[in-house]
Structures are given as C-alpha cells and as structure tokens.
What we know:
- By secondary structure, the chain is an alpha+beta fold.
- Helix content is about 30%, strand content about 20%.
- It has helices at about 45, 70-75, 85-95, 105-120, 120-130, 145-155, 190-205, and strands at about 20, 25-30, 35-40, 60-65, 135-145, 170-175, 180-185, 210-215, 225-230.
- It is elongated, with a radius of gyration of 23 Å.
Amino acid sequence: xxxxxxxxxxxxxxASAAVADNDFVxxxxxxxxxxxxxxxxxxxxxxxxxxxxxxxxxxxAGYTNYNESFFHKVADDLEASSTLEAKVVAVVAALxxxxxxxxxxxxxxxxxxxxxxxxxxxxxxxIARNNPYFTWAKSHVIALTTCAGFLSCVSGxxxxxxxxxxxxxxxxCENQGGENCCMSWANYDVKAGxxxxxxxxxxxxxxxxxxxxxxxxxxxxxxxxxxxxxxxxGCT
Length: 236
C-alpha cells in the first residue's frame, strides 16, 4: 500500500524560464505565471541500494505559494553526499510540503517506514521476512533497541558466547530500561551459533522496534528454536 499518494498540484507551464536548484527541484511558474516549485523525486534513485518498492514515496508535484528556502534545503539534503537519515527527512518533508517534525504523527510514520525500507540492509530484511525460519510477532514484545545491548551480548553477537545451552535454565533475562529482555531456547540441543544468527536476523530485519522474534529450526540442522521476547518461557 502506498503510504502517501503522489500529488501533482500544477503542471509545468511555459509562462517563464525554469531555474533548476538541482535534479530534484526546479523553480518555475505555473500556467498563470505564478511562481512554482516543481519537485520531482524518484525515491528508487535517491535510495539505490534497496530492492524495496519505494514508489509510494516518489513525488512529481508543483507547489505554489511555497517557501523557497524550504525547497532549497530539500534539494541540498537530497544530494548524494547527504546521510541516509537526511535524505529520508527531505523526502518526507517534500511529500508533506513542510518542514519535518517528529511531533507530526503522519510525518513520523512515513519517516520510520521509509528509513527502514531505504536502509542498505533491506535486501536481507526482505529475504528474512519471507523466510519460514523466522517469525516476528506482536505478542510478548520487547523494544528491540532497548534490549539490544544485553541480547546482542548474551546471544554471542557482540560478546563471546558464554551460555551453557545443554542444562537448565533454558533462558537468560535481564531488565533493561524497564523492558524484560529475554532469550530462550526450545531444548538443550540447540546449536550455539544459532543464537547469534537468530539475534542478528531478528534485530536487523524487524518490521519495527516493538516485536518478539523467533528463529525456527525447521529442519535447518540447528536442533531447536530460539526466541527473543519479554518472557523466559518462549515466544508462543
């Protein structure tokens, strides 16, 4: 589903010569001769590293009665040298025709969605979300970024793996920022490397920050499931 419908407020006219700020913004005039900022953004070209369908964030719009300095900034922030976050802000601001504000819930939602879709890791994320070996859910959720320090370490992603898998307890939990961050596993035979692999995929490919995630054995040879959630007894 498209998050914001591309809009065309006015077509380019021949009333005056166009002045290009860059490939994304051209200052021209509409059919009546009124000043117009013609914004053309192909999101797939702005974020070339992702296979995600970004058509819902592409823009071909003519803005009249506009703030010129605002569109100059949009154009500057869309340059190739800008950071990913700056480009995302610029696209969302252009879609809404105003300065980006976190306090605007629609803008914030579009920012979070586009940032995730445009991230260079999206290819892996898309593959993972269609992979029967992983499940993200809205039950027993944790704030992944809040729990990341502990879970990254205990899973062996950022620390040496120190958990004894083959004896009780079959979980490790720690309170982080008010979150009960837990890693649990299905049986005593889960391979140690599967903890790291599951955390890496669960964290990097999560649909959003508030999720539980489970890596399934499903015949992959890892000998069991691994869950990251808000409880010691597993994801389900």
